[in-house]
Each structure stands twice: as structure tokens, then as C-alpha cells.
Amino acid sequence: MSIHDLDFLKAKVDQLKAEGTFRVLPILETPNEAMVIINGKEVINLTSNNYLGFANHPRLKQASIKAIEQFGIGSGSVKTILGNMSLHEQLEADLAVFKKEEAALVFQSGFNCNAGVIQAITDLGDLILSDELNHASIIDGVKLSKADKAVYKHSDMIDLERILKEKRTQYTNVLIITDGVFSMDGDLALLPQIVDLAEKYACLTYVDDAHGSGVLGENGRGTVDHFHLHERIDFTIGTLSKAFGAMGGYVAGKKVMKEWLTLRARPLLFSTSLPPAVVGALIEGVKMMSESDAYTKSLWDNSAYFKTKMSQAGFDIGHSESPITPVMIFDEALTVKYSKRLYELGVYISPIIFPTVPKGKARLRVMVSAAHTQSQLQKAVDMFIQVRKELGSI
Ligand SMILES: *Cc1c(COP(=O)(O)O)cnc(C)c1O
């Protein structure tokens, strides 16, 4: 036996298999849109983050092709050396206007935006306060910071204030970080209350609006816009990989924030900037959202239609305040069975089980998009009803 057989990894994989959590990934054979082919079978797709149908939109594809012809395939460099093309500058300027902020700075993904920004804006002697349900990229970003960390209970303002009362005076800066929309339940952060507490205790605020960008607020301007909190949130982070349809992340806020982060956010110094094809598509995506609220409107119409039909059919769909719709099955094994049977009948929804959500809170997380038709959604509801007849519920 040699160490190079990687037996230490085999033991871990075997453990997953024993627990029943080992997975072989589904293979998508078409663009990620309303109808897809997965592992050779055509199904209604209720699992993607392609909220507005931009991921395969002809206008974005055309803009992408044009950008390739003008600027080539690769940016050829990290942003801080020679990877900052006029195309990237334009996207940042357009995003700042769209978000109604002084400035915006684009990263290669939402994930590495959190990984880069949090450590660059905090230091030894600071404290970070993070909601317990914040996204994994925030958790990793916080780990990279030299600041002290504390976690408050999910959206629990009493717990948040308790920590502020106890600790605020011991630190230079205190940064409160929250998701704008929580991705597993679809609930919104209590941003007005968070901002009030931040102002009372002189703290900075940081919102990761990955599931709010392109979804909430006027024309999809995000959760901060939804709550009319412009000027009162210091750092607004978002992804360009979900509603915007392509790939990337951004932080929007003050001009001086951009000046500092441009030179000190490590993903911009040590990882190549986004390729022209992606940036060109994103410029078009921001333009389309700015021009019309038709995309966000059909997203919300479709999500209201699906939620109403599912509630009428007696399903527990939690307390979502966004298009994210958790269909609660609770039991882990039953949730996996529901997902398999729904796929056989013609709708794909991936099961969300422990450790992504707590034990006994397993669910099928339905992601409706602007591009679904109501007849597709009605079919999906009918399939849910049929599967419940076959498998029962808890
Ligand atoms: C999806 C998501 C991200 C990651 O965005 P990518 O652009 O896919 O890397 C970051 N934060 C939150 C809250 C998310 O939901």
C-alpha cells in the first residue's frame, strides 16, 4: 500500500457512501433554461438560478459574440496588471448607475468577491458580526480576515443587539454582514432593523444580495433598493452569475471603497479578470434590466402563480418572501424519493438535505424563472400531487 493510492480520501468517500450522501452529478445536455435535457431525458427545470432567463438569451449571446470579436477570448492578465479592459470599465460604470451607488467593482465570481472584500476592509482590532445562515462564501471570507468574529442567531435582532452591547466598545470597527435574501428559505434579511442597530452602535453594514440582484427592488436593483436603504448600507455585494445570467460578482458603494479594493482585494491582484465574452454579455444584461421591468415582473408573476397553486394543493411552502420556494418534505430519505420520482414524471428539482439544511428540514427548493410558462408550472404542480399520492407525506 502506498500513500499515493490516496486511501485517506477513499475512506472519506466510503463514509459518504455509507451515510447515503454520495452523489453522482446530473449531466445537463442543453442550455440551462425552462425545458432541459438531463441525463438524456427532457424535463421542466425548476432548479436553476437563471431567474430572468438571461443565461441563454439571444441579446446576451449576440453581445458576447461581439465582445469576443472586438476583445478576444481571454483578458490576458489580472485586473491590476493589464486585465482592466475598457469593457470592464463600462460594466462597472453601468452597474454603479443601476445600483444607484457612487462606484462598483467587478470580481470573477460572487464567491471570490466575498473572499476578497471582507479581508480587505477589516483588520486586527475589528469585529465581524455574521448571521448564522449566511452563505458559505461569506463564512470563508470571514475566515480570511484578521478581525475577531461572532455569529448572531438567524435574523434575531435581540441577539445581534446583545452582542453589540457587550462588545462594541472593545473594537475599532464593527462590520455587520448578512445575506439580503437567504437562499434556502427565501426570507429577506431584516435590513431596516439591522441598519437602525448599525447606526445606533456606529457599525458598518455589508449585504450579500446574490439572490436579490435582478429579483427585488425597482427593475431588480436589489434588496437595498427594495427597502429604500441607499446611502445607509456601506457595502452591497452581488453576483452576476444568477439573474444576470453569466458569471461574476460585484461590490457597490463609495468611490473610496473602490479605490482601496482595486489595489488590495486579492482576487483582483492574483487571479485573471473576467473574459470579454462574459463582460460583453453582462453589459447587455444590465442594459436590459435598466430598460424594462418586464423580466422581473414575469418572474414574480410566475412565482406567485406557482406558490398559490401549491398552497391550494395543501403543500407546506414555508415563509418565503422571494421567488425561492421551499416545498417542505422534512424527511431526508422521502425528499430524495420525491426528487427521483418527479424526475421520472418530467420535472427536475434537486433535493436539499442535511448538511445544507438542518436534519428534519429537508425540502425540494423550487426556483421558478421568468422564462417558464404557466402551463409548465401547472404541469409541475400536477406532478407534485401525483407523487404525494404515490409516496405520501409526513
Ligand atoms: C450564489 C451565491 C454566491 C456565489 O455567487 P457566484 O457568482 O456563483 O460565485 C455568493 N453569495 C450568495 C449569498 C449566494 O447565494
Could you walk me through the main structural features you see in this protein, from its secondary elements to its overall organization?
With 394 residues, the protein is of the alpha/beta class. It contains 14 helices and 13 strands. The chain has helices at 7-19, 58-71, 86-99, 110-121, 136-143, 157-167, 191-200, 223-226, 255-264, 266-270, 276-291, 294-312, 332-345, 374-391, and strands at 35-38, 41-45, 103-107, 127-131, 148-152, 174-179, 204-208, 235-239, 249-253, 324-330, 347-348, 351-352, 362-367. The strands form 3 sheets. It has a 7-stranded mixed beta sheet with strand order 3-9-8-7-6-4-5, sandwiched between helices. Strand 6 (174-179), helix 7 and strand 7 form a beta-alpha-beta unit. The termini are far apart. The chain binds pyridoxal-5'-phosphate. Pyridoxal-5'-phosphate is lined by residues 109-111, 135, 137, 179, 183, 208, 210-211, 239, 241, 249. Residues 109-111, 135, 137, 179, 183, 208, 210-211, 239, 241, 249 line the site of pyridoxal-5'-phosphate.
